[in-house]
Amino acid sequence: MTTLFISSQVMAMGISAPTAEINPATNKVSIAIDNPDTKSAHLITINVDKIDSPYTGKSLKRANDEVLYTPSKLLLSPGQKARIQFNYKGPKDDTERYYAIKWQDEAISSSDHPDSQKVTQVMAVAKISTILVAPPINPNYSAKYDSGKNGITNSGNVSFKAVAYGDCIKPSPETNNICQENSYVGPGREYVFKMVKISSKHSSLGFWQGNDFKTVNK
């Protein structure tokens, strides 16, 4: 006989990256997960949906034919770590594609009941969603500064992390009038900076192109 209980006094699984990117050279990426719980095992179930963008998260379909992964279900003992490998089998063109990795985390434990029945306890169920990005085969990094909006526009075909540093829009003694702000910006999208006054001569603006930092002309 199996008996189910629900409790919130457990720790959810750990995931190494809220956003992971497929390596274009191998069409693969692996994500590290762990069970920080010292008392309960965790049953992890994984599904992947294709989505329109990370900004809306609208599911288009299950991505079974475009993203393969193994294992799709595993049991992590207390303190155990594991790596899940994702293999991209989708289209290879000049379009960036996005997927939602949906992790279901069930904290479980079992014990022997005095009447010789095995009792299984589901302590809690957590659902976590992370983003998987498949970059275009020919990435084009391009950005434009919008002085009227104090923003940056991604005019290329691949996402980048924009970084601004310099004078604060709202100076305060706590910041010494020095602010830093960053955000991921998808293709065709604009990010308006809320903390850094980009037009100031003391401010700088740029973005990360892989491991290289590129300055954007103001």
TrEMBL record:
It holds the Pfam family EcpB_C. Keywords: Chaperone, Fimbrium biogenesis, Signal. Residues 145-214 form the EcpB C-terminal domain. SUPFAM superfamilies: PapD-like (SSF49354). InterPro entries: EcpB_C, Ig-like_fold, PapD-like_sf. Belongs to the EcpB/EcpE family. This is Probable fimbrial chaperone EcpB. It comes from Scandinavium lactucae.
